[in-house]
Amino acid sequence: LHGHLTPGGGFQGGATLAVAPMILIVTFSVYFLTKRITINKAVILRTAGLSVIALASFIVLIVALLQGSIAYIFQNQVKMFSPYSIPSYMGDSLVLGGTLLLFNASETFAVFFGFIVLLILITLPEDQFRKVVLESEE
To answer: Which of 28, 50, 80, 84 has the CA that lies 20 to 30 A from 22?
Structure first.
């Protein structure tokens, strides 16, 4: 709840959201979940979350360079010689923490889909793993 102002919260949010697919696996089956989201889709969505984290590190720098000015990597507030920053306020009253909201939301997304991949893999029957391993060895 406080993650838009201070670091932290992205991993906890993703781990909390990962309870939902685990309940689906326990209640219905892993096959029920994999009909809705495959491992490949989950890996792609996790990669998208990680890519946004990487982009957020450079977003202020990219904007400043496109406008012919100076900025820094991981800069989210105004620094000496660089007037660029992520807005500190949204509207009149909502205080933001610069790029922290983007970092935390992206981390939540990445962790959530990473856990989905893990949950699917650890709940698949062993014979399916053996089939995949034998095919990859050939």
So the answer is: 50
Question: What are residue 90's DSSP bridge partners?
Answer: 94
- C-alpha to C-alpha distance for 120 and 92, rounded to whole angstroms: 44
Largest Cα separation within the chain, whole Å, is: 63
Model pLDDT, residue 42: 94
Segment 35-87, tens digit of pLDDT: 999 888 999 999 999 999 999 888 878 888 888 888 777 776 677 777 776 76
Q: Do 60 and 86 touch, CB atoms closer than 8 A?
A: yes
Q: Specify the pLDDT at position 111.
A: 96
pLDDT of residue 138: 61
Measured between alpha carbons, how far is 114 from 43 in angstroms, rounded to an integer?
7
Judge residue 87's burial from the number of C-beta atoms within 10 Å of its C-beta, 0-12 exposed, 13-18 middle, 19 or more buried: exposed
In this structure, the number of other CB atoms found within 10 A of the CB of residue 1 comes to: 6
Find out whether 82 and 125 touch, Cβ atoms under 8 Å. Answer: no
